[in-house]
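Protein Record: Sequence and Backbone Structure Tokens
======================================================
Tokens: labelled as protein backbone structure tokens, with as many entries as the chain has residues.
Task: work out the structure tokens from the sequence, keeping to the layout shown below.
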Amino acid sequence: MEITENSSLSKIDIKNLDFDEIQSFVCEMGQKPFRGRQLYQWIHKHFACFFEEMANLPKDFRAALEECAVIGGASVAEKQISKDGTGKFLFALSDGNYVESVLMKYKHGNSVCISTQVGCRMGCRFCASTVGGLVRNLQTSEMLAQVYEIQKISGERVSNIILMGIGEPLDNYDNVVKFIRMVSDEHGLNISQRNLTISTCGLTEKIRELAGENLTITLAISLHAPEDGMRMEMMPVAAKYPISEIMDACRYYIEKTGRRITFEYSMVQGKNDSASAAQELCRLLRGMNCHVNLIPLNPVEGRMGQRSDRGRIEEFQAVLEKNHVNVTVRREMGRDIDAACGQLRQRYSV
């Protein structure tokens, strides 16, 4: 059992432990296994932040937990609510860093978009998350805390989670995979893996590794361009991961998992929104079990470009539909607040 410690207190962050690990942990403390189940449910079903809340645990056990463990997480430093009901949350971490999450309310349920890193090293030129580069990876407990705190604040169940906030999820692979397993565990929130989405810039070796994890999640690829030259102007990481290699990894993933892949495509005026770019995208995706999500760009001060106008987006969409590519245009939410990834954190840190 690999246990992560809180470096400042030299205590175990018990929220990082999955169900089996907690069972082993309490047995090592001389407790019976059912105490592990109680402890896990307090943290992952009731969202307890302090051991003293756990009324059905013996006092001596709670005292022993206080001596050797902490319940890691994050606290809300700022909250913004859009006119459309979208919520943007700035979370303060124990080391003074900040990350963001977004709550989006739909008729089919509540979706939460969470961060996986403090900052990001991918360098995408239209994204505020990369300003300042990568600081560190988030622990599994810090990812879980974003979901738990939002559910506590909203008073409503979270039914869908998208790992598409600050950071590149596959650059924090082990913690992200553990998060997926824990948030879908029947002993915790028990969110269906089919309602979980990981978005990646296209780290091909990690896509192939993810294909072998026996997960039923949705994989989304931040593509944003149909050819390498255009993509490298927008995403420096494209120099390491050419589109041909990404497509090979995606086909491997589809074959291995049987799951459809989503391609995210941010529409940047005069950059990647031409009819010829749409035709090239159709050629690239021909025969693949996939879906394209066209995203009206959220402009970020000092970053690349402006959003394509509505007519150009509709023309682009029409080309894809004519070529039998499944395509939708992402519904815009939260435009009257700091909606784009990293905007609120960037403003708060200035």
Q: What stands out?
A: The longest strand covers residues 98-106. The chain has a mean pLDDT of 91.
